[in-house]
Write a structure and sequence with these properties.
The chain is an alpha/beta fold. The protein contains eleven helices and eight strands. The protein has an eight-stranded parallel β-barrel with strand order 1-2-3-4-5-6-7-8, surrounded by six helices. The longest helix has 29 residues. The radius of gyration is 18 Å and the shape is globular. It binds phosphoenolpyruvate.
Amino acid sequence: MRIALIAGNWKMNTTAAEATKLVREMLDRLEEATGVEKVLCPPFVSLAAVRELVKGSSVKLGAQNMHFEAKGAYTGEISPLMLAGLCEFVILGHSERRQYFGETDHIIGKKIVAALRNRLKPIFCIGEKLEENEAGRTKEIIARQMSQGLSKAKPSPDIVIAYEPIWAIGTGRAADGEQAAATIGFIRYTLSRLWNENVAQELRILYGGSVTSSNIAEFISQPEIDGALVGGASLNAQEFLSIVEQTAAIKTKQSAIRRQQIADSK
Ligand code: PEP
């Protein structure tokens, strides 16, 4: 059974002092939420400070990006080697990286390979633009992003996929739960074709795009959706805590039902 995951992408927000304050506000209640993996992705410069705060807790850390090379003349870049001791996850291929920093499926593919080589778990973001969605091209776009992004990677359950329709990111216009679950079902099917059914069933697939405490239940109650990548709402302690706590409650209930179904079928 897949363990639910909620990741907070703080983007280019919070000074080191603000990051520390935000973590302190959330840590006790995050720790109490069981049955869900909790991942905070602060800016690079706050990773070490946040790491100290969450040490010994069940809260995990992620970076928001990285270069694919281990070291070298790449001014301003951060390598997988540097992140390996600092965090467990790394967000790769976020639509803002694709849009503002020219990241292509090919570059993202190299980053995924580099992350896995350094035992970092990639949160691989994919999703279509509004005009692609309206033209009925969602599946085509996602299949391309997956086949190119994963072409060099070995099948691994450490990869997390985040389905983030670009028109839903930071816009307040979330997809609806059933729509997102249907697309995520297609992503799982595509994984089974690219790799195999076992990996497709093991790998976690999140929804991302204007998730808040008011709509998280709609997504999480879909068994196909394993969690969420949360942007704006992850900067508000009460919002993020509510998202995590609702996820823990709903996914714990789903797991109990599933276990009962398996027991009944024996
Ligand atoms: C994101 O940054 O990945 C994201 C989904 O942002 P938001 O929740 O603000 O739409």
